[in-house]
Write a structure and sequence with these properties.
The complex is a heterodimer of chains A (743) and B (177).
Chain A (H helix, E strand, L loop, with lengths): L2 H25 L2 H6 L19 E3 L5 E5 L8 H13 L6 E5 L16 H28 L7 E3 L2 E3 L5 E3 H5 L32 H4 L16 E6 L7 E4 L2 H5 L4 E7 L2 E6 L2 H14 L1 E3 L9 H8 L6 E6 L9 E9 L11 E7 L2 E6 L4 H12 L6 E5 L11 H12 L7 E4 L2 H7 L6 E9 L5 E10 L51 E8 L15 H19 L3 H7 L4 H14 L11 E9 L6 E10 L6 E11 L6 H21 L27 E6 L15 H16 L10 H8 L1
Parallel strand pairs in A: 2-3, 7-17, 15-16, 19-20, 23-24
Antiparallel strand pairs in A: 1-2, 4-5, 5-6, 7-10, 8-11, 9-10, 12-20, 13-18, 14-15, 14-17, 18-19, 21-22, 22-23
Helix pairs in contact in A: 3-4, 13-17, 16-17
Chain B lengths: L1 E7 L2 E7 L5 H8 L18 E4 L2 E4 L5 H4 L3 E3 L1 H4 L7 H8 L9 H14 L5 H8 L9 H20 L19
Parallel strand pairs in B: 1-5
Antiparallel strand pairs in B: 1-2, 3-4, 3-5
Helix pairs in contact in B: 4-7
Classes of the chains: A alpha+beta (743), B alpha+beta (177).
Chain lengths: 743, 177
């Protein structure tokens, strides 16, 4: 839906709620009314209802917008400034963006789930439309002309008579300290000047010129450098360490030992690194075999869990004919890493019992609350300020390193500490994307239509972020002498879902059952990796659709279209097939083939379909993904190049997950330590990518950041099957596995 | 501790450090240059790349004593926001990153490539950058950016002037906020 219809729907909801209030007023005693919840407002306005939380207009001609969502290379600052500039009628250059600072910005929770434009963009759109209305009304009074006759150009309001006044003149007497009403209708798309255009991202120039762009670039006076020494394995306990010897090393300022938490601060970074090495050599640990079996045994181990299956959805249509053919298949996904290029980093400083932390956390407010719990101090005594890190793709070590830095900074007499993890800290201790097992079964009727469908899955948690549960979800907390345990994380509820994200088919199958085994007893720490369970579930679902299509002797694209009514789903399927030059029922030639896949991320966000071309070297097992053509419907598009960048990046990243990536471990230790142990795609492995955008200016924003990962895995698997007749069901498709399958 | 006078981006800079200190920490912490990044400390990812006498060097594992006599160039030495090097301009024009953390290494190795191969093909660019990891997966944009910069540098060469045209090569006006 567009700005307009977005307004309409929201207002409808609003009116509905208000009329509810009115009736309540008439019928209920006064006391009950006070207990009524306030009318819902669109996007994040609902939880941050004051206009001045979102924007400020200053007499000096500047416009500042505030957002709780943070830049992580997805271009959110630019997209939000486009939305604000359009609603306010100001030049884009005027708009400053302040984001992710617990002292200055609204609390919008985590920047996650491909929701920033939906949440923050919607809020800013309504807040800025209302602010413009307030300013224009004030101008009308001042100019003695009806507001409807006034025009605004870059903040200058003019009347038909030629008289005028600017926002900056009006700013002093305009009070945005008022609750938003969301009653001012945002502009129709035809009037957008910035939204819908590929505006260059504002964060990029400094990134290519050595500007201060990242938390790693924060330098404070008198700052020292910190490193942490983690246990060698998840089950290890620190037995002994010679702290005194380490304190005598050059430059060492502090050594902190608290239970099994060990960290060191030094005047110079290389001194901190050397002291870390010395500490690690000196430390004696008691280790236990706490990890599950690896390889195929891991999946058997997960499936043998005593956690009962929970029905996520069950749909039955008793009138449908019994299937004439049924299939069953088991798909697996290993533990996988976020593997940020820059290890996690934070800067922390204690002053007068108050803590300041510069962090690349995706949620400064939840982090603040968690740090408050860890230190037993009220959140008001903590300020968390966001600065970018390397791309994170979900919950990596960003939050954990903030606690590490804060713990170490308690020992540096008020001196700020910049603590960066080393490469092995990140690989061994970041929370992984959970291993998963998906058991699919389904049947087709005599006409070759799917009549029964079942998807049973086993998974560990996909969100153990700060704030996801009681307890303290920061790594070091569990290593302290007074250990603070992480809480028991609940699964992300449907309809978005966590473990079962995208497990419910969007196809119109008459009988569907989805069951999940949500196993919270997780010997390896897991949390949100881009798409949560969506990547593995779409891999399984869309692979299995192709398996059934083959059983029915149907073309994969035609088969999908036969089973889906949603016109927007059909739209992307058609567009991707057409642009890719899909040839119905074309067979691969033994080494080259093409596969298709579709999903709507979370069944709520953008629609994405794609065709992938692969080449298989049957002798070596080497697999190349040569080309991917995708079509995306993300509703109204704010920044087309930004959308393409996300979808394209997602396709290539998912190609990497799908072909190469797997955390390795034995029964005691994680043995993935460096890039040598965890290869990812390089330039020579990367497919050509083409993205077709189906802009829907009359539809609301749909998140795109995670739209392409799931379909990519399935399209590759389907292409391999198309090329060679062999079906790969265990991720990743390493050369060794491909070779085995071809034998 | 020993004293080293380094030539960084054309300027002499004196530091007092242990001879085996990796160059990266001197650049980032003593000279406060943000360009070179710590990515792995193992010479595996390329984020820390600088040029020493025109050749790409992984500064995270290069002891200062081994590079002290060379001409060291960091991305700051190529150009500034106001006066961009054609490579920087091309990476911005192609929006060739998401997080940008790998961008320093990409630009620096591309610089070394274009210095010796002014008209590279796709394969040469990919080979030259294959030792650099990018996790956001901007690879295809990066390859386009290197082609774009090569074109601009060749055009400048044809005009006989070393100086790149001012902001002109941003073809799409909307690409500039």
């Amino acid at each position: 839906m567009s700005a307009t219809s977005s307004g309409t729907v929201s207002r409808r909801a609003f009116l509905k709620a208000s009329s509810g209030l009115v009736i309540g007023f008439a019928l209920a005693p006064r006391l009950a009314i006070g207990q009524d919840r306030p009318a819902p407002l669109p996007g994040s306005l609902n939880a941050n209802r004051m206009l001045d939380a979102w924007l400020r207009i200053d007499p000096n001609g500047s416009v500042t917008i505030f957002t709780g969502k943070i830049e992580l290379g997805q271009g959110i600052g630019t997209a939000l400034s486009q939305i604000a500039a359009d609603e306010l009628d100001v030049d884009l250059k005027r708009v400053e963006v302040v984001s992710g600072d617990t002292a200055r910005t609204p609390n919008e929770g985590q920047t996650a789930g491909s929701l920033s434009v939906e949440h923050s963009g919607t809020a800013l759109r309504f807040a800025c439309a209302e602010a413009r209305d307030i300013l224009v009304s004030a101008a009308a009074v001042k100019l003695g002309a009806p507001a409807a006759e006034l025009k605004v150009s870059d903040g200058a309001v003019s009347a038909p008579s030629g008289t005028g006044v600017t926002y900056w003149d009006l700013a002093r007497d305009t009070d945005f300290k008022r609750e938003a009403t969301a009653k001012v209708k945002p502009k129709p798309p035809a009037e957008h000047r910035w939204v819908g255009k590929s505006i260059a991202r504002r964060d990029i120039p400094k990134k290519f010129t050595g500007g201060a762009a990242y938390v790693q670039d924060v330098r404070l006076p008198n700052m020292v450098f910190g490193r942490v020494v983690r246990p060698p394995s998840p089950g290890a306990q620190l037995l002994s360490v010679d702290e005194a010897a380490i304190r005598r090393l050059p430059g060492v300022v502090a050594v902190v030992r608290d239970g099994s938490f060990l960290a060191v601060a030094a005047e110079r970074e290389e001194q901190a690194i050397r002291a870390r090495e010395a500490l690690a050599r000196s430390a004696r640990w008691g280790e236990t075999e706490s990890l599950p079996p690896a390889g195929d045994a891991l999946y058997r181990h997960m499936m043998s869990s005593t956690v009962p299956g929970e029905t996520v959805v069950e749909k039955t249509s008793p009138v449908v004919a019994a299937p004439v053919k049924t299939l069953e298949a088991l798909y697996t996904r290993p533990y996988q890493c976020h593997a940020s290029i820059g290890p996690s980093c934070a800067v922390a400083q204690w002053q007068d019992g108050k803590l300041a932390v510069w962090t690349h956390s995706q949620g400064v407010f939840p982090l603040r609350a968690e740090l408050g719990k860890a230190f037993g101090i009220p959140p008001r005594d903590i300020r968390c300020i966001h600065a970018e890190g390397a791309g994170c793709y979900g919950h990596n070590g960003a939050d954990d390193v903030a606690l590490d830095a804060a713990l170490l900074a308690r020992a540096t007499s008020g001196r700020p500490v910049k603590l960066q993890w080393m490469r092995d800290d990140e690989f061994m201790w970041e929370p992984y994307g959970s291993a998963m097992v998906m058991k699919l079964s389904g049947g087709i009727d005599a006409q070759g239509n799917i009549v029964t469908w079942s998807h049973e899955l086993w998974s560990h948690p996909h969100s153990t972020r700060p704030g996801a549960s009681a307890g303290v979800n920061l790594l070091a907390a569990r290593h302290l002498a007074q250990a603070l345990a992480p809480g028991l994380p609940a699964d992300v509820p449907q309809p978005a879902g966590g473990a079962a994200r995208n497990a419910i088919p969007l196809y119109d199958f008459p009988n569907v059952k989805v069951v999940k085994h949500y196993i919270t007893d997780a010997p390896l720490r897991t949390s949100a990796l881009r798409t949560l369970g969506g990547y593995a579930n779409v891999f399984a679902l869309e692979s299995f659709v192709d398996e059934l299509a083959a059983a029915a002797g149907a073309d994969p694209v035609d088969f999908r279209l036969r089973h889906v009514k949603d016109p927007r789903a059909r739209g992307v399927i058609d567009a991707a097939a057409q642009r890719a030059g899909w040839r119905p029922s074309a067979r691969g030639d033994g080494t080259r083939g093409r596969g298709f896949a579709f999903s709507r991320y979370k069944n709520l966000a953008c629609y994405c379909a794609m065709a992938a071309d692969v080449e298989v070297d049957r002798k070596t097992g080497r697999l190349s993904v040569t080309r991917v053509v995708a079509a995306v419907d993300a509703g109204q598009i704010v920044n087309p190049d930004g959308v393409i960048n996300q979808i394209e990046g997602g396709i290539i990243q998912s190609t990497s997950w799908t072909l190469m990536e797997m955390v390795r471990f034995d029964r005691t230790r994680v043995i993935t330590r460096s890039w040598a142990d965890y290869p990812i795609v390089r330039f020579t492995d990367v497919p050509e990518v083409e993205v077709v955008l189906l802009n829907q200016p009359a539809e609301r924003f749909l998140g795109v950041g995670e739209g392409s990962q799931g379909p990519t895995a399935a399209a590759i698997a389907n292409a391999i099957a198309n090329a060679t007749g062999k079906r790969l069901r265990a991720l990743p498709f390493t050369a060794e596995r491909v070779k085995q399958a071809m034998a | 501790m020993a004293s080293f006078t380094l030539r960084v981006n054309g300027e002499p800079r004196t530091v007092s450090v242990e001879p085996d200190t990796p160059l990266l920490y001197i650049l980032r912490n003593d000279l406060e240059l943000n360009g070179p990044k710590f990515g792995c400390g193992l010479a595996q990812c390329g984020a820390c790349t600088v040029l020493v006498d025109g050749k790409p060097v992984r500064s995270c594992v290069a002891p200062v004593s081994t590079v002290a006599k060379g001409r060291i160039t960091t991305i700051e030495g190529l150009g500034t926001v106001d006066r961009l090097h054609p490579l920087q301009r091309a990476f911005i024009a192609e929006q060739a990153c998401q997080c940008g953390f790998c961008g320093n290494g990409m630009v620096m190795s591309a610089k070394a490539l274009l210095d010796r191969t002014p008209r590279p093909n796709d394969r040469q660019i990919k080979q030259a950058l294959n030792g650099h990891l990018c996790r956001c997966a901007s690879h295809n944009r990066i390859v386009r950016a290197v082609h774009r910069a090569a074109e601009e540098l060749r055009a400048a060469g044809r005009r006989g002037a070393g100086a790149p045209p001012a902001e002109a090569s941003l073809s799409n006006k909307e690409m500039r906020p």
